[in-house]
Amino acid sequence: MSSSSLWQPYTLGRLDLSHRLALSPMTRSRANPDGTPGKFAAEYYAQRASLGLLISESTQPSDDGQGNMSTPGIYTPEHVEGWKAVTDAVHAAGGHFFIQLAHAGRMAHPDNTPHHRQPLAPSAISAEQDVYTPAGPQQTPVPRELSVSEIQDLIGEFRHAAASAIAAGADGVEIHAGNGFLPHQFLAPNANQRTDEYGGSVENRARFAIEVARAVADEIGADRTGIRISPAIPLGGLHEGEPAEVRAQYTHLVGELAKLDLVYLHVFHVGDDELLGSLRGLWPNSVLVVRYGRGREQIADDIEAGFADIAPLGQFALANPDIVERLRTGAPLNEVDQTTIYGGDDTGYTDYPTLARS
């Protein structure tokens, strides 16, 4: 791992960062029943403030947006107050905080949502995936197809959630348009079989993500709006076609998003470097890349190759609150306890040892 690239300072929109690492968004399923962040959330994020830019776990913009159990929201006054404690703690520790806005769409189950309604999606096609519910794993049901007017309402929910995030003290938001979430469902032909302006062509399937991004940027500023994509990653039962089809879809999407001047593009990458290079070329601002299966020695590779400006860390940061110090000094890393990633109390959440207390 080259210190020459990873430890260079960087300006991301309004933020001055001292290095090129960040905290990748990771679901931890420890929110309170009302969707406010759990009692240990402020400590968890503040422990990792040395990463500079922290991106929160998936946070739903509405009741309909909840997919997994015990995930937080950012759409009620109580949510705003709960996240304010988190952002205050992160800022006090010297970090910056973006809240990831994520709508589960069809990747949901009525048992996990406050209102127990049928999930919403581009088309009435089940993901046929298991999700964890209070009764154990259950398959996702057939969702209800959104009307055009409901799609407009959803865009308004993202706008409201973004405003709520800023009111809670966040430095910005990341729109989740990958990993099987709702905007990704609109992009995938096997989940989106609409025949109106939101389905069919490459342009139409990209319309929802673009309109959400435009609404959020209009509400809080493009320099506080990022977006995450995951081309060709088959999470949530999605299939985006052959490589040429994926490239056509994402070069159009990213080209249109680039016109909005969003502060960053966050790519969860699985290996099509030709596509990644094309997206890098289309994007005028910062690019974050998380590469699937990347090891410790490969963290800086995408920065050195010119694909990325920032390298967010996932499980490395989950298990090592002082990951920045460990990487700088070459210290050994804690291993992740896979049994405590989702749900529970502070065990496997805020109790991973630092070098100072190990």
TrEMBL record:
Swiss-Prot/TrEMBL keywords: Oxidoreductase
InterPro entries per record: Aldolase_TIM, OxRdtase_FMN_N, Oye-like
CDD domains linked: OYE_like_FMN
Cofactor(s) in the UniProt record: FMN
Record-linked SUPFAM superfamilies: FMN-linked oxidoreductases
GO cellular component: a single term: cytosol
Entry superkingdom: Bacteria
Keyword Oxidoreductase: yes
UniProt-listed PANTHER family: NADH OXIDOREDUCTASE-RELATED, NADPH DEHYDROGENASE 2-RELATED
Protein name: Alkene reductase
